[in-house]
């Protein structure tokens, strides 16, 4: 009998893309059914502000509807659907979950282990997209691209941005600090080398690659990075240790006029403290793609500051991200069906 696979995608991670790659990898000996969720046209739930579902983070879908759709499927491939302990208790046939994300934040991992359900993910699926976006974010701030654009949109020609006391600085003369040296942070370091800037990395859990060491990248403590960098870009995961670790104390250590870039996760930053650092002029500017609460409130104070660029959590959004994630998930499905060990177990 063909193995039953439930696919829950959305309008970014298309169910049809998952199905296409699974059939390519596994042939026709699978029974696939698909569900499309309305994200990103409708917002997901964010457990960082207090989860409504067993502590899960960043998910979409009502438990009863998800359980009814999965039914007797043995395999689930999903992007955002939540899987909690109480849901797993109602899905006795489920043995495998592929989550097309860098981290399975929408899955209760302890419950999955307790129920003998293998969970795999797709690490690095959007590393290229986020790294490229980060370089653009740095340039938008340091070269006054956002400032010039906003002025022109408002009918003002900012000739003063050419003044020596106001114009931007080139990356080649600056020091960039990368916090987090995973798939994204290490790629950011690689891209930055082309600009000739000094590169610092703070990550206590990994070592620099031999190539980065040879190229002069420095591995330093976070406190040293904060004090030396002209630009600080965040690429760490959210853990108890990193939650709001860019707070008042950390911001006070950052040199006057430096820039903060966050394309990682909103909970890494104390946004009230960041607002004060930007409003006072201690920070020269910030570029933020992620937030503790998404969507951000219309009256959010940071929206009113002139020295901050905000985007709606799109750094990882690219067509290539979809393709890479679907390919990785399909290969994990194939390996599970073939009795082979997974490449990316959680």
From TrEMBL:
It comes from the Bacteria. Residues 63-345 form the D-isomer specific 2-hydroxyacid dehydrogenase catalytic domain. Keywords: NAD, Oxidoreductase. GO terms for molecular function: NAD binding; oxidoreductase activity, acting on the CH-OH group of donors, NAD or NADP as acceptor. The keyword Chaperone does not apply. The keyword NAD applies. Pfam families: 2-Hacid_dh, 2-Hacid_dh_C. Coiled coil: none annotated. Residues 136-315 form the D-isomer specific 2-hydroxyacid dehydrogenase NAD-binding domain. Belongs to the D-isomer specific 2-hydroxyacid dehydrogenase family. This is D-3-phosphoglycerate dehydrogenase. The lineage of its organism: Bacteria, Pseudomonadati, Pseudomonadota, Alphaproteobacteria, Hyphomicrobiales.
